[in-house]
Amino acid sequence: MIYVNDVKFGKKELELVGRCVKTGWISSEGSFVKEFEEAFSGFCGVKYGVACMNGTSAIHLGLLSLGIAKQDEVIIPAFTMIATAYAVIYTGAKPVLVDAEPRTWNMDTAQIRGKITKKTKAILPVHIYGHPVDMEPIWKIKKEKKIDILEDAAEAHGAEYKGIKAGALGDAAAFSFYANKIVTTGEGGMVVTNNKRIALAARYFRNMAFQKKVRYLHKDIGFNYRMTNLQAAVGLAQVSKIESLIDKKRRIARIYNERLKNIEGIEIPREEKWAKNVYWMYGVLIDEKVFGLSRDKVREKLYGEGVDTRSFFVPMHKQPVFRKMGLFLKEKYPVAEDISRRGLYLPSGLTLDEKKIDFISDKLKKIKKRYA
Ligand SMILES: Cc1ncc(COP(=O)(O)O)c(C=O)c1O
What we know:
By secondary structure, the protein is of the alpha/beta class. It contains 13 helices and 14 strands.
């Protein structure tokens, strides 16, 4: 089976983790945490990094540090991974949805203004599958209305918008280092920002809201969202080769594009002229009428041929958990619904070579020929 993802570590990860084991520096107090924070935030082109236990906690910390609370609204895309919406809910604020746009599958920035109310405190763009969001319209809104921007860059390590890296496109950004991410620490996350106040707040909330002077007196609800030195050791080793990891993802996408571009009924992912797409996962859309089979049937047949795939996210307004809470009940997001129904991503792991991509592409062609 060719899985959708795989992990490729080298000697450096082993060496740095070994150092933690040998020295006993395994908790968040170890020096690799700071080194990893500096290395990754430096890569993004921002001053501060606050490592934490996963991407979801990074978004939560980002929102808390921006002061988001119960009375507020946060604008997020309808088409995203559920963690984006969860993190807003954790703060007590209300997630407000905008539809996706059909080219990049990111939030349709033209629809944001229509969703702004007096309660809107932040916009949370998500760089879906590694393609950056068109930020210019969001920057304009920020300037006019004094609304903060927190990027969900969980899937977009190294992606660029007009030459600026994801992580440096808003007031703060949240990254995930889950095992399937470009840089991984197994489980892990980071808030990055150029704003010292936000960085300090994120550190404070990450560590139980301990105060510096009177340690065991707490003024706020804090969280234990700390990252261990063991995870940071892996992350540090990974960041040292991040450029080659990103090049590999882009090479995988180039080969797939070449092989799939002429198959009728398959829409390949785009890279807008202002964007650097890091193709975290190589997603395609199936047009059932043209291809001859539904997305689910294509997935089933590919699985039978030894090729693992994933369907696209289910939009937020379709999530039973939110509907149960009375959220998004009469709302419609046709583009999000459409790409969610038609989208799948193909194996995109870092050990994927040309031979495997040829194998997968040939299977797709064979399935179309045989069953469509
Ligand atoms: C867009 C997006 N946001 C947030 C997350 C949450 O990250 P984590 O799984 O590290 O909590 C993910 C995770 O896969 C994601 O894809």
